Amino acid sequence: MFKLGWMLGKSVRLSAVLAAISASGILINLAYQWYVLTRVGPGSETDALFAGMMVPQLMLTIVAGSLSYVLVPILATADEDSRGGLAWTLYQGMALFWGTLAAVLIVLAPYWVPLTVPGFDPATKRLAVHLSRVQLIGLVFTGVAGVQAAAYQARHRFAAAEGGAVVAALAGFGFLLWGLPRMGITAAAWATVIRSGCQTVLQVPALGPYHRPARHPGLDLAWRRMLPLLSGASYYKADGFFDRLLASMGPPGALSLYHLSLQLYASAHTVLNRAVVAPAVPRLARTSAAGEWQDFMALSRRRLRAMLLITLGLVPVLLLAGRPVLAAMLAHGQFSPARIEELWLILVLLSGVWIGGAAGQVLSTSFYATGDTRTPTRIGVVGFSIAIALKLLAFWYFGILGLAVAASLYYLGNSVALLVTLRRDLRRASVSDELRILAPL
Hints:
Blueprint: H1 2-40, H2 44-51, H3 54-76, H4 80-116, H5 122-154, H6 158-183, H7 185-202, H8 217-236, H9 239-247, H10 254-277, H11 281-289, H12 293-330, H13 337-349, H14 351-369, H15 374-438
Helix pairs in contact: 1-6, 1-10, 2-5, 2-10, 3-4, 3-5, 3-8, 3-11, 4-5, 5-7, 6-7, 8-15, 9-15, 10-13, 10-14, 11-12, 11-14, 12-13, 12-14, 13-15, 14-15
């Protein structure tokens, strides 16, 4: 009993430390957006800046996000030397991949960027092309950082992974403070490049002693698990891209407000994921590999309960205190009271994204920890197919507010489908193991 209490206390302390470090980095990143929006104001320039992030973010979500989900369980169950060799091989392979992709996208930016923002006027489209080219440089750094973060998590060095991100965020924000009055909105794009570059440099120790690229058995396993994610994620993880494409057809500033709302929730999700979900991944992977399904279910259930308690508890806070808090934070410079009211309403209507997204992180990670990447992908594909029609109708009749409601329904429905399917699959696995044990008797 004493040992169990000590372990629980240690887990709580680790979660608290990770939440504090991660929250610091997230607050700095939010301060970046706050400074840009209050100095420049929500409008065509900020719309172009955030539109320039759409394709790089989509690429990172599909590839880097999928790699992280797959790589942590594999590295967590490998010995130290094998782990280092696999991490360095993937790091160098990702650097080559992202570097080539970024170069191609930069050259072709005048052709593909206007297609992603059909509602922009010609001047705003040209600005979006310029800002996209700058931000694509950072795509290389952010792409390889996913391998470094996975290597840290597999070694249970969660604080080290978060600390580097905080220092890098400070460097990027410092450049923004210096550059925005001198370079205009272009400084905001360069600040993201500096932040991602610093983070990659600071996290090189995560990989351990250098290994030359080599064939590794973990590569085949990683590829087999990533393939369903890549094939499905390239479709259903275009959700944010699709939302911003619709928002670009709204009035000037609508895309900026919608993007800021999603970023606020995504930032909070990141804190919760790193504090609540990430520390559980290595243990989920080990209990799954050992067939200890009761322990697996108990751990997954505890993490899901914690996520729901936090997210549901904060919704009344948003309803009661959201407007005065936003006013205190944003009622400066070019951010008008009418824009603050619109932002608050969008946040309220997106509360389903807040709740469903947090729950979905626990449930998806539970699937990935068992090596099952196909089931969450299938659920995501079906859900997003339904959501496309729902979002088109909602935006057509109710504009940006209707889009927010449709996004909430999509996230909540997706998390319910994940929960029902995970419970069913775990019950089947538990019964199957019991029958296998009893068979010789």
